[in-house]
Amino acid sequence: MASGATAFLGSATERLLPLSLPFRFFAAAVVFHMVAWAVLLLGADDLADYTGGGGPVLAAVHLLTLGVFVMTAMGASLQLLPVATLQGFAAPRLIAAIWWLFNLGTMVLAVGMYFFWHQAMAAGGALAGLAILLYLWLLLGNLRRGGALTAVVAHGWLAAAALLGLLVLGLALIVNQEHPIFADAQRGAVSHMLLAAYGFMGFLALGFSYVLVPMFALTQVPGPKWTLASLSCAGLGLALGLLGVWLGRDLWIAAGGVVGLCAVAIHLGLMVQALRQRMRKRLGPAFILIRLAWGLLPLSLVLGIAWALDLLGERGGVSFTLALLAWLLTLLMAMLQRIVPFLASMHAAIAIKRRPPTVPALTAQTPLSIHLYCHGAAIILLGAGIIWSQTLIIGLGALAGFAGALAFAWFFLAAVLKYRAALASA
Amino acid sequence: MAVELTAPHWQADDGSHIDVRDLPPPEPMLQILAMLETVTAGDVIVHHHREPVYLYPELAERGWSHEVMEDQTADGGELRLRIWRGAR
Predict the structure, then answer these.
(1) How far is A135 from A190, CA to CA, in rounded Å?
(2) What is the mean pLDDT of chain B?
(3) Which whole number is the average pLDDT over B60-79?
(4) End-to-end alpha-carbon separation of chain A, Å?
(5) Is the peptide bond before B28 cis (omega within 30 degrees of 0)?
(6) At CB < 8 Å, which residues of chain A contact B?
(7) Is residue A174 part of a domain?
(8) Which of A11, A221, A272 to mutate to test the interface with B (most CBs of B within 10 A)?
(9) In angstroms, rounded to a whole number, what is the distance separating the alpha carbons of residues A32 and A42?
């Protein structure tokens, strides 16, 4: 028996968190998803020419990155990281406290950013930062014992390091507004964004894909040799990009992007290979979004390289940021629509034993189809609106995104209600 | 079937047995599902080093039921899971 396996003992109920814990993170992400699109709709005027600073665009970005991305990452990692590390998270009260702190912090921070109110930004940043530090402590405690899937654990380590870096930079950027720290705040902001998107979320997204895609498609986990090669390239690419930003070397940033593309090529090659060997023939609509995300990730890197080399003009930064956020949002929405009914079915099977609800029975397809079309339309319209600097098109894109977010909330609520009904009727 | 059944498996009086104790995740799930595709009648007994909770949604979707027969994982032993087609 593997040494890690012996440490992962006890009944399922001892290892697994109650479903209400990961689901409260997912529920918050679903709500922040709607709010982020609504706030972007209010700030449609500012988006095309946005180059930084407070206002609705900054608030919408952080509602998305903190409220949706990090919130989902927290919920998913608390429930699914034990698959890779073979260690459970036995701290339900601390996790509940993290959820409250992080929700409150994200809301206050977003309000502060929307109205450019420094005190609210500082208070919100401090609350969210405290929640992130507590989560980081839990994450490191889980990762430090290693596990069965070394490549996934290695991704977790780099993600944790990036999370710490982006937190320090994010708080420093808030302080910088009243008490200048940075000689060039723009460099700090870009580094913060790179660490958040390609660092914390990127490493987690790549790492968890090696668990979740095989789990959902029923296929083999790619071997550690190539997954670690991809991770090495991703880490090197990010380091080069960050150094280039700090030292003002555009070629270094571009080189970092090229190395990042190598990482993506290896990762996507592994994913395509895994899908070719899958047991499940019908992958479902979630994999349409996953494939879209796989296209958006290299697109973001290409746009980032072009922006660094000043090939995109004034809207290079906002175009790159759109592709970056679209990649992560698309991937996370795809994962969430698989994870939510899967976890509900799993917990129901433990509680009910006989005839638990299946994943298809807990999945409402109509809202997911609406979300798919609205999400795709939102990305296309926002991209077109930015390129042609048309506020109306950007507004329509945000509206489509908001409609998609409403449909996704409908799907989530339906899954929760069906799960509760199954438990009640057992 | 894209996943080959490579885990140790054998036939006994109480059903078809499969031992997935040495496998990293999610290989046990894949091997058990591959085994189920080959079984035409009788129960399947799984020997595991932990309760395979992530397998349960897949079993439910395929119309199989399950019960934990024996759980000695707290003492470093194995868990035995019985799986059968339909309800009983």
Answers:
(1) 24
(2) 90
(3) 89
(4) 37
(5) no
(6) 1-2, 5-6, 8-12, 15-16, 83-84, 86, 148-149, 211, 214-215, 218-221, 276-279, 342, 345-346, 349-350, 353-360
(7) no
(8) A11
(9) 15
B60 with A349: Cβ contact below 8 A = yes
Tell me the DSSP string of A170-210. HHHHHHHHHS---S-HHHHHHHHHHIIIIIIIHHHHHHHHH
Closest CA to A74 of A98, A104, A91: A98
Q: Within a domain: residue A44?
A: yes
**Is residue A395 domain-resident?**
no
Question: For residue B3, is pLDDT > 90?
Answer: no
Give residue-wise pLDDT tens across range A237-272.
Answer: 999 999 999 999 999 999 999 999 999 999 999 999
CA angle A339/A345/A351 to nearest 5° reads 135
Report, at the CATH architecture level, how domain B9-85 is classified. Answer: 2-Layer Sandwich (3.30)
In this prediction, residue A10 carries a pLDDT of 40
Q: In this structure, is residue A226 part of a structural domain?
A: no
Residues of chain A with pLDDT under 50: 1-11
**For A130-145, what is each residue's pLDDT tens digit?**
999 999 999 888 888 7
- The vertex-A149 CA angle with A144 and A150, nearest 5°, equals 55
Report whether A146 contacts A84 (CB < 8 A).
Answer: no
- Structural domain of residue A79, as residue ranges? 9-148
> Residue B26: what pLDDT?
84
Contact between residue A334 and residue A293 where contact means Cβ atoms under 8 Å apart: yes
Query: Measured between CA atoms, how close is B25 to chain A, in angstroms?
Result: 7
What is the spatial distance between Cα A415 and Cα A410, in angstroms, rounded to a whole number?
9
Size of interface A-B (CB pairs under 8 A): 104
Give the C-alpha separation, A155 to A18, whole Å: 26
List chain B domain ranges.
9-85
Query: Which residues are B79's β-sheet partners?
Result: B48, B71
Q: What six digits make up the tokens of A95?
A: 């996790």
A360's tokens: 């298809």
Closest CA of chain B from A283, distance in Å: 14
CB contact under 8 A, A355 and B71: no
User: How many distinct structural domains can be found in chain A?
Assistant: 1
Bridge partners (DSSP) of residue B82 are B45, B67
Q: What is the ipTM of this complex?
A: 0.85
For position A415, what pLDDT does the model report? 97
With a CB cutoff of 8 Å and minimum separation 6, the contacts of A210 are A149, A151, A152, A155, A221, A222, A227, A270
